[in-house]
């Protein structure tokens, strides 16, 4: 594990978490496909300590993170723990597999009990969600979604993940949002096979970083100009997904980040324009750019886990009030 140099400063979490001045720091764990980041912080301007652990096997990675959490618990104390994990993950609290990894392609991780391994026995208030839902919550607290109850965070990297907030909370139901796997119309001349092994024409299969590599063939990315036709089906698929988001839960703004848009900033304007074409005047979007870059950059993931901890803490503070409401309700 590699200690990370950290900045310090005042906390911006305390006002929104409805907690006392003596609040302890939050602990967060971002579980990624190649590395996990454990963060002890009050918020973006008050990071205390951070460690990176390689994602190898659950029996190795999870105990290493657990040891960090235990050391923080003993040294400083922890107000609440947030875990933002790669998916798919089980989020039904009443189910026996709550907190486990589901059908991931990642060898060894199917069925891994992430929540139990990291928090079992520590008696901590805990928030658990996908990495992208965590990032959406972090952008809502501190970044491009500030003040918006309805907001989407899209990351286009190896795959496509979408964190979707409705009424200030990540969507629930069968599970977390999987909008990266909705099927979208292919452009007529697009014959490149989908990289999704489940769907021939889903957004991830047509427009992810893996799809981009497939589209490149023998070409080198650095030699592909912004006006190259290679981008057309990628723009079309991302705009179709944004169209679906607008018509479905209607986020007030969409943050579009991840390795592909970050390296190809020309995509953002094109997807915005293609979205307007696609909507064809049927719905009005809020003023200003609708699809924007995330503001938190590489910190969106680690801060996502801190946001989950802060939200769990706020929910804990809210519960007695709810219970009181229940008692006085006729
Ligand atoms: Zn798919």
Short summary:
This is fructokinase. The chain contains ten helices and eleven strands. With 330 residues, the chain is of the alpha/beta class.
Spell out the CATH superfamily of the largest domain: ATPase, nucleotide binding domain
In percent, how helical is the residue content? 25-40%
Secondary-structure-based class equals alpha/beta
Q: What sort of overall outline do the alpha carbons produce when their principal axes are compared?
A: globular
Please report the number of helical segments.
10
Tell me the distance between the termini.
55 Å
The CATH topology annotation of the largest domain reads as Nucleotidyltransferase, domain 5
The H/E string reads EHEEEHEHEHEEEHHHEHHEH
Ligands, deduplicated: zinc ion
Overall number of domains:
2
Architecture (CATH level 2) name of the largest domain: 2-Layer Sandwich
Query: What is the CATH top level name of the largest domain?
Result: Alpha Beta
Radius of gyration (CA) equals 20 Å
Overall pLDDT metric: 90
Biggest beta-sheet profile: 6 strands, mixed
- Approximately how much beta-strand content do the residues carry? 15-25%
Question: Strand order within the widest sheet?
Answer: 1-4-3-2-5-6
Contiguous uncertain segments of 5+ residues: 1-20, 326-330
Beta-strand segment tally: 11
